[in-house]
């Protein structure tokens, strides 16, 4: 797949719609069984007895769905070089089977890496909303992207 987006295209304030996903009850149970086997993620009755009021997705499942949408609808066509990490994850509301989740990506900051002139660093926020417009996920973090036109390395200081 051809590269459509480089570091230069990720200017502060730019927003991308990264699509939607709708988890099923079985997908929620399958993820939980493997990665977060808390009762309210595995069993409808246990979910009803919990503060969530029903079977709900693990927050890590919600993050994983956000990552899938990010890869499918952005990173595969970008010059992504990975990420040095996340700063902030908040699970704002539970995600239930059949919820349709929509993901937005907004660039907050962008700067070149001094040590690697061919790469730029982007700080971004991902916000996921359910079909009622309620925010279910807030995630902030960094991405590294190749530059379309790498900056020349800094000249050595003269003496």
TrEMBL record:
Which positions are tagged coiled coil? Answer: none
InterPro entries documented for this protein = HotDog_dom_sf (IPR029069), MaoC-like_dom (IPR002539), MCH/BMMD (IPR052342)
Q: Which residues form the MaoC-like domain?
A: 19-105
In Swiss-Prot or TrEMBL terms, this protein is called MaoC family dehydratase
